[in-house]
Amino acid sequence: MPRPRRTQVSIEDTSWYHCCSRVTRRAFLFGEDKFTGKNYNHRRNWVENQLLKLGGIFSIDVVAYAVMSNHLHVVLKIDIFQVNSWTDREVVEHWHQLFKGTDLTQRFAKGELVAEQNLSQLRHSIAQYRSRLSDISWFMRCLNEPIARRANKEDNCTGHFWEGRFKSQALLDEVAVLACMAYVELNPIRAKMAKTPETSDYTSLKMRVKAALKDQQPAKLLPFIGDERLNQSKGINFVLKDYLELVDETGRIIRDDKRGSISTSSSKILNRLNISPGNWIKMTSDFGKIFHGPVGTTQELTNYCDHLQKRRRHFAKCCKYLEDGCGAFQDSH
Predict the structure, then answer these.
(1) Which of 6, 21, 43, 172 could staple 300 via S-S, CB 3.0–4.6 A?
(2) What's the whole-model pTM score?
(3) What DSSP designation does 308 have?
(4) Burial of 265 (0-12, 13-18, 19+ CB in 10 A)
(5) What are phi and psi of 226, to 5 degrees?
(6) Dmax over Cα atoms in the chain, in whole Å?
(7) What are the tens digits of pLDDT across the range 112-134?
(8) What does the pLDDT look like over 153-208, one tens digit per residue?
(9) Residue 227 phi/psi, 5° resolution?
(10) How far apart are CA 282 and CA 186, in angstroms?
């Protein structure tokens, strides 16, 4: 039986999570369906647009994503500090971009006075919205449900579009985050749908490459802020140029099946991460097969399980891929 999502999320340990949704029966409902001869590639654009829209509404940053022919991957970062800093009016305004709300919240948003006997109900609604706007379950619901309704309407059918609940896993340290990002963004290259990052359609990697050519970063993605954080309040504590070079080379190795053929330049980057080239290639190639739960070192996994009161450390044997020694991933807020 699937575990409640709240038993898999521990903000105390990490705000970084990898989520994956698959369409029912793993049919190619986002690409070329060989059985029907129909092409649904345009639906990948639906998903990408909705995903980036939600990143601007929720207090959850989009870190990386890839929309494939029959599934999608997304790496998210929950910003609990941001949502708690929003005023009550800001919370309501964000929520009303997705849902109608109640008569009380509608009146409150318009600046109308709320009767004293209704204040308790209004505060309850605002507290509920604030919680949901930093909840990955609500984020994925607002991503998947509109796509399912739109696709069913287009196909003139009813029923399940997605294959049950989305899957999520906690990313407990820096290497876990970066390896998962690379794994997600290299999906089209592994599937031989693209040869290079800049031709990997419907991925965050293509967005980053296009922006980098203009010496910019995509406004709708969590930025790389380097080791010195570039005076920014939040972001990925890694140099964008190093990441793009590492992912580009990793993609070439995976595509050409040159196992372990890491250049001196990329080896230096991996040395800073304190991970071997072999483990990096293995994780970015088979992340989904290796890790079926939280990803981190043995100690990080132990802390995560303790905080969620899990009696057993499932998936502990997978920690070997991160046990080369990777320092704690310092969250930036």
Answers:
(1) 172
(2) 0.90
(3) T
(4) exposed
(5) 70, 175
(6) 69
(7) 999 999 999 999 999 999 999 99
(8) 998 888 889 988 899 999 999 899 999 999 999 999 998 899 888 899 999 999 99
(9) -65, -30
(10) 13
